[in-house]
Design goal:
Blueprint (H helix, E strand, L loop, with lengths): L1 H6 L3 E5 L2 E4 L3 E2 L2 E3 L2 E3 L6 E5 L6 E6 L3 H18 L4 H17 L1 H12 L3 H18 L2 H4 L4 E6 L2 E9 L2 E5 L7 H12 L3 E5 L5 H13 L7 E3 L4 H9 L3 E7 L2 H13 L3 E5 L5 E4 L5 H13 L11 E5 L6 H9 L19 H16 L3 E4 L18 E4 L6 H4 L6 E7 L2 H10 L2 E2 L1 E5 L3 H10 L4 E4 L15 E2 L2 E2 L6 H7 L1 E9 L17
Parallel strand pairs: 3-7, 10-11, 10-13, 11-12, 13-14, 15-16, 15-21, 16-19, 18-19, 21-22
Antiparallel strand pairs: 1-2, 4-5, 6-7, 8-9, 9-25, 14-24, 17-18, 20-23
Bound molecules: nicotinamide-adenine-dinucleotide.
């Protein structure tokens, strides 16, 4: 709460339940354990997406500031990587409790900067918190392997060790969850961490940094810089940075993967998506329609795992009118308003882009069954709102199908059979998530085995794995070898040292040099 007050100065209530800010505050850099004002001449405005009021400013950190941040990470690495694993574990045990204690404050900040509803913002924190909870099992997760007696008197064992300074580049859509996929996993393994939050939602990351400091993380173990392309290029190029975790669009992710890899870094890049929900005619109708609507329009469709494409198989095509009725029931409003289901999009540009993709569907022969383009939200006329939109008669060659819309728009295709549906899904370049809705186990099994997508739900619309598993998006939704969090996350943030040791008894000492390969 104290940090929120310092992030955003003097609040003035405009109307019940809604705040505006009389003076604009600035997002600080977090360098070597201090929250410092940037000396940058270049600043970006932060907007409340529900009103488009400027609520703060974020700097594009200067080159010197970015150097200071990475130098701080490098210095801290020497001691942090040698700190006992139990001490690191204790910090994250305290951290998860502090996040729990502050979940409502974090959620308020997310709603203010990102726009999603307060309940959904709590979910954003909660799903990140689960990763932090999982890091508390580091004493098991970092275990090496041993194989005794590989030959006489010789044992082999491995240590899992940190790799150095790691960096994270985050998107706007999950201001808490995605940074929490990044630095806690990296740090608990003994790495130090440089985070660049999305320049559109920096506040939540700053509050998470403060809580981590309160949990006892030593100065320099986490540093935070702000900015856009220059900051990203700095991270991709700086030789002290050994690994980069990225989440965001394909345009940025492909670029970062290429530039970071060329510089010899490990890169894991989670990118865009087009997630299909395949509805079989034998599915539980009530359940399926509710799940589809929730997963397509929740968070205003600004989730990489949003179920943005429905494929209605056979007779399930007759469910469209009921699907539309359910979507009509959702309430579009500012995220902090009671009863809001669908909040605003992040920016006027995002709204314009979503509207133009809807229009492209119309121009190419699709039918708009529910049109959210002209939605009016009383008291929030300047917000970036688009209401739930359902576009039917869509075919795979249409722009609204090919592009990730990232808004509250469900595009609907039809298929004659499960095989046809699988063909459509596998032809789409993305492989983040998908779901099948059915009561037929054999159909579900066939789908999960034949569909080329990394995360599959069976009657589960948004199958984001819990942190004991990993976030396994695939194909155009991911670049890299090891995925985020879970065992793969530990693998990404560690390297393995293998020791082969021989302890011979005195009487077994070699009598002459061995010049041939041992057999
Ligand atoms: P974005 O790519 O615009 O921004 C992400 C980060 O990259 C930001 O920190 C930004 O400063 C930086 N960036 C932006 N453009 C860049 C460029 N051209 N070069 C270098 N860096 C750049 O993404 P966003 O709009 O913040 O987030 C939405 C996107 O993220 C969607 O495509 C969504 O599917 C994707 N996403 C994917 C996952 C996943 O797990 N696969 C999760 C969340 C979001």
């Amino acid at each position: 709460a104290t940090l929120m007050r310092s992030l955003v100065k003097k609040r003035v209530p405009l109307q019940k339940g809604h705040m505006c800010y009389s003076s604009v505050s600035t997002a600080k850099l977090f360098i070597d354990g201090k929250f410092v004002e940037s000396k940058s001449p270049e600043w970006l405005d932060i907007h409340n997406p529900a009103t488009n009021e400027v609520i703060g400013r974020v700097p594009k950190a200067t080159h010197e500031e970015m150097l200071a941040a990475v130098d701080s990470c490098s210095r801290a690495y020497h001691t942090w990587s040698e700190t006992s694993i139990l001490a690191r574990q204790q910090i994250f045990l305290r951290y998860q409790q502090l996040i729990k204690d502050n979940i409502k404050e974090l959620a308020k900040l997310i709603t203010l900067e990102q726009g999603k509803t307060l309940a959904d913002a709590e979910g954003d924190v909660f799903r990140g918190l689960q990763v932090v909870e999982h890091t508390c099992s580091i004493t098991s997760l970092m275990l090496g392997e041993t194989l005794p007696s590989i030959t006489k008197d010789m044992d082999t064992y491995t240590y899992r060790l940190p790799i150095g300074v790691c960096a994270g580049i985050a998107p706007f859509n999950f201001p808490a969850m995605i940074p929490l996929w990044m630095f806690p996993m990296g740090m608990v393994c003994g790495n130090t961490y440089l985070l660049k939050p999305s320049e559109r939602v920096p506040g939540c990351a700053m509050m998470l940094a403060k809580l981590l400091q309160d949990a006892g993380a030593p100065d320099g173990t986490l540093n935070i810089i702000h900015g856009q392309h220059d900051a990203v290029n700095f991270i991709c190029d700086h030789p002290a940075i050994k690994a980069i975790s990225f989440v965001g669009s394909n345009q940025a992710g492909e670029y970062i993967y290429e530039r970071g890899s060329k510089n010899g870094k490990r890169v894991q890049s989670n990118m865009g998506a087009k997630n299909h929900g395949v509805v079989m005619p034998d599915a539980n109708k009530e359940n399926t329609l509710n799940q589809l609507v929730g997963a397509a329009f929740g968070a205003a469709g600004q989730r990489c795992m949003a179920l943005s494409t429905a494929i209605l198989v056979g007779e399930a095509r007759n469910w469209l009118p009921e699907l539309v009725e359910r979507a009509k029931g959702l309430r579009v409003n500012a995220g902090d308003q009671p009863g809001a289901d669908v909040g605003p999009l992040i920016s006027p540009q995002a709204k314009e882009r979503v509207n133009s993709l809807i229009q492209s569907g119309v121009d190419e022969g699709a039918k708009v069954l529910l049109d959210g383009r002209n939605v009016k939200v009383k008291g929030y006329e300047n917000g970036n709102f688009v209401g739930p939109t359902i576009v039917s008669n869509v075919t795979p060659d249409m722009k609204c199908y090919k592009e990730e819309i990232f808004g509250p728009v469900l595009v609907v295709l039809e298929a004659d059979s499960l095989d046809d549906a699988i063909r459509i899904v596998n032809k789409n370049p993305y492989g983040n998530g998908t779901a099948i809705f059915t009561t037929n186990g054999a159909a579900a099994r066939k789908y999960t085995h034949q569909v080329d997508v990394g995360q599959i739900g069976v009657n589960v619309p948004i199958p984001v794995p819990l942190p004991m598993f990993s976030f396994t998006g695939s194909r155009a939704s991911f670049r890299g070898d090891t995925n985020f969090y879970g065992k793969q996350g530990i693998q990404f943030y560690t390297q393995i040292k293998t020791v082969t040791a021989q302890w011979k008894a005195e009487d077994a000492t070699l009598k002459s040099p061995a010049v041939t390969m041992p057999t």
